[in-house]
Specification:
Elements (H helix, E strand, L loop, with lengths): L2 H4 L15 E2 L11 E2 L2 E2 L6 E2 L7 E5 H6 L5 H4 L6 E4 L6 E4 L2 E2 L11 E5 L2 E3 L12 E8 L13 E7 L7 E9 L4 E11 L4 E12 L3 E3 L4 E3 L1 E16 L2 E15 L3 E4 L9 E2 L10 E17 L2 E20 L7 E19 L6 E23 L5 E26 L2 E25 L8 E21 L2 E12 L2 E2 L12 E2 L2 E14 L4 E21 L4 E24 L2 E16 L3 E2 L14 E2 L12 E12 L5 E11 L2 E2 L10 E2 L2 E12 L2 E8 L7 E7 L2 E6 L4 E9 L1
Parallel strand pairs: 9-12, 16-21
Antiparallel strand pairs: 1-2, 3-4, 5-11, 6-7, 7-8, 9-10, 11-12, 13-14, 13-46, 14-15, 15-18, 16-17, 18-19, 19-22, 20-45, 22-23, 23-24, 24-25, 25-26, 26-27, 27-28, 28-29, 29-32, 30-31, 32-33, 33-34, 34-35, 35-38, 36-37, 38-39, 39-42, 40-41, 42-43, 43-46, 44-45
């Protein structure tokens, strides 16, 4: 596809490939057409993604807009080996089968998110839809040596759009017929003075949900989102570049996407009957603020980079269970989080025999959550209990990377990060009235940890645009404390850190005059003391602890073929074999023979597939664009996403806890002329009903229903 054909439209740029490769401008005679180079910052430097020895997927802003993908959960449709479970508590992120279940709100994440370089270890920090994005990089495998803390399984890096030195303005209005709602996004960007550029972006979204609740007469979850992001870039000379950004978001949801599933047959419905329990509305409301100052300064031949960050949110979350009959249970959370961080790094010039990066990082955070559970199980068993949890954490780390160009086409890379973590926490529980559902003592705890995460890589350029690599890397994630489990006792209050070791080998190639891209990698990753959270159906609460060990190994690939200046085909996929090596004391599965289940209801899950791990994931995409009539341009894109069977509940009950394999289809058809683009977008066009997370609550199967079909009309104008 030719950028000249699509100039002036962001939707038209949607042929930027899912692997991070797009289509360069074609000459007038159509003979000079090639896949475009995409620049990433996965190794703290701006590099061609095909030169980076990491298995990764890059999504451009145009690709995200093309399919109206505006949440991290949407990314799993385009990134093999990525799973985002929409749980009854914050989202859960998994890469290559590994991740951190979300029921423990104080959990650090094994898959961390970075927003313009600012670390985000709490999944609620980035559940709000993202907007005004430049690109998203998804890195698979441990990234702790250079990228940052708590990336034992991988990382997601989000880069916002920067202010421009020429005037730009855009507005996009989308109407969602399936959700009876509208979505408005706009920005203005340009120079304020000779040395100062500014940008301001706004977003508003009002949508009804996809689950019909006849108990309340609403379509749940009903969502209203408001976001604003001003940013300034100061460039007084070639040696100084300072970018400051602040964004504020409100994300209010009434109701939820929980459905009751049959305990006798594997059926799914979009209808539920759940009146408001105890008169307490089910809701999920978040207010979030994020700010960063990114500086880049020339220091002789070197470059000094600084990232100063703040991230914070407050959240109120109510979840009830009525079973369409008497009030049974409602739990309410009120949480507050704040984090301040500072990173400094020094980069040597490139094109040297030895290149280096050295740096240091610090953050401090405060987290508080209050959990009130109101219940009535009948027979006089009723009451209300509250828990409160507070945690203060801080991290200091230093890191370094060196690249030695042994010869022109062979190089060795070595990285290491040393991290010191400390946490202090307290937990209290009190019964407000009635019969206690559980009794937990007042608890306090402190922990201090030191971790060293090294990595080593060999890269060899077989020929121009064909590179092979082999990497060994280690990752770690700090231990922590149980924040919101009513039955916690002193022996279970603290859990241990987890560690990962990974081997990876791959090839990245762009061949046939840069019209064909072929990438392939093999990986083998082992986790020790893997942190896990499971729902205990007997205690009606989540239990957090450590599995002994687990291993994930498999193959990932992506390929692109630029058939002509107006037609491109892409595919990406992964094979995954992820299992517990040893997991004593785990909750018995629905399929566990009685002889292997202890009187306490526990067993060893060694040899069992990890929660959420599909053997096969992948997608196939086709993109077409061509001049139409009267200077109009026509573009069309379609993608089919496949995911094989995976478990979604801790007990792996086949009636509600296993999601069968499925294919989902998204598509976009657009017409553009001058500054205007009109598009029709379809998501999950075949209306495939799938579940992302499930558990057994008091004998009832409960699951989160993924979004059903969406059809949108979008009008876009650029000035």
């Amino acid at each position: 596809m030719s950028q000249s054909i699509l100039s002036g439209t962001r939707l038209g740029a949607a042929m930027l490939g899912l692997s991070g490769i797009g289509i360069a401008a074609a000459s007038d005679n159509g003979n000079d057409v090639a896949l475009e180079t995409i620049i990433v910052t996965a190794q703290k430097r701006a590099e061609n993604v095909q030169d980076v020895p990491i298995s990764m997927t890059v999504l451009s802003a145009a690709t995200l807009e093309n399919y109206h993908a505006d949440t991290i959960q949407d990314l799993q449709n385009y990134v093999p080996n990525l799973l985002v479970q929409s749980a009854t508590v914050p989202n859960q992120y998994f890469i290559r089968g590994f991740g951190s279940q979300a029921a423990n709100d104080s959990f650090d994440q094994s898959v961390s998110v970075y927003d313009d370089g600012v670390y985000g270890g709490r999944n609620r920090q980035f559940m709000i839809p993202f907007f005004d994005i430049s690109q998203v990089e998804v890195l698979r495998g441990p990234q702790g040596a250079l990228l940052g803390k708590n990336t034992a399984a991988g990382a997601i890096s989000i880069t916002s759009a920067r202010p421009t030195d020429t005037f730009e303005a855009e507005a996009t209005l989308s109407y969602n017929f399936s959700r009876n709602g509208d979505d408005i996004y706009s920005y203005v960007s340009g120079p304020l003075t000779d040395t100062l550029n500014g940008r301001i972006a706004v977003h508003a979204d009002d949508q009804q949900g996809w689950v019909k609740n006849i108990g309340t007469g609403t379509n749940d979850p009903d969502n209203a989102t408001r976001q604003v992001r001003p940013s300034l870039e100061f460039k007084p000379n070639d040696g100084v570049d300072i970018l400051a950004k602040f964004d504020y978001s409100q994300d209010y949801n009434t109701g939820n996407n929980l459905i009751q599933t049959s305990t006798t047959s594997n059926t799914v419905t979009t209808i539920k009957d759940e009146p408001t329990p105890f008169g307490i509305p089910e809701l999920d409301r978040t207010n979030a603020s994020n700010a960063s100052i990114n500086g880049r300064f020339a220091v002789g031949p070197d470059t000094l980079e600084t990232i100063t960050g703040y991230s914070g949110y407050s959240n109120q979350y109510n979840l009830g269970a009525t079973a369409g009959a008497p009030e049974v249970f409602v739990v309410g959370f009120i949480s507050d989080f704040s984090q301040y961080s500072q990173e400094v790094r020094l980069l040597s010039p490139t094109n040297q025999t030895v290149e280096y990066i050295v740096g240091a990082y610090y953050d401090t955070s405060q987290f508080h959550t209050k959990n009130a559970s109101t219940y009535n199980f009948g027979g006089g068993f009723a009451g209300q209990v509250q828990t409160q949890f507070t945690q203060h954490a801080s991290t200091d780390s230093v890191f370094a990377q060196a690249t030695w160009h042994i010869v022109d086409n062979f190089r060795a890379l070595g990285s290491v990060r040393y991290t010191h973590d400390s946490k202090d926490a307290s937990f209290d529980e009190v019964t407000d009235y009635g019969v206690p559902i559980a009794t937990a003592p007042s608890l306090t705890g402190s922990e201090t940890e030191n971790h060293t995460d090294p990595s080593a890589t060999l890269q060899y350029d077989v020929m121009p645009d064909v590179m092979v690599y082999a990497t060994y890397g280690q990752g770690s994630k700090g231990g922590g404390f149980v924040s919101n489990t009513r039955t916690v006792v002193a022996s279970d209050f603290q859990f241990a850190p987890e560690k990962s070791k990974s081997y990876e080998a791959g090839v990245k190639s762009t061949v046939l005059d840069k019209r064909v891209l072929l990438n392939l990698d093999y990986y083998d990753t082992k986790f020790d003391n893997l942190q896990v959270t499971t729902f205990d159906s007997a205690l009606l609460t989540y239990v957090t602890g450590n599995a002994a060990s687990a291993t994930s190994r498999g193959v990932e690939w992506n390929a692109e073929w630029l058939a002509s200046s107006f037609l491109k085909f892409s595919t990406a996929g992964a094979y995954l074999d992820a299992k517990y090596n040893n997991f004593p004391g785990a909750q018995c599965l629905a399929s566990t023979p009685p002889a292997e289940c202890s009187p306490q209801g526990t067993t060893n899950l060694g040899g069992t597939t990890l929660l959420g791990a599909s053997k096969w994931t992948g997608n196939v995409e086709a993109d077409f664009n061509h001049p139409f009539i009267n200077s109009w341009k026509f573009t069309a894109s379609a993608i089919a996403t496949y995911r094989s069977t995976y478990t979604i509940s801790a007990d792996e009950n086949p009636l509600y806890g296993v999601e069968g394999g499925f294919v989902k289809y998204d598509a976009n058809i657009a017409f553009s002329k001058d500054a205007w683009t009109i598009a029709v977008i379809g998501k999950n066009i075949s209306d495939k009903l799938t579940k992302s997370f499930a558990y057994n609550f008091n004998g009832i199967g409960v699951a989160d229903l993924d979004e059903t079909r969406e059809i949108l009309l979008q009008v876009h104008v650029k000035f």
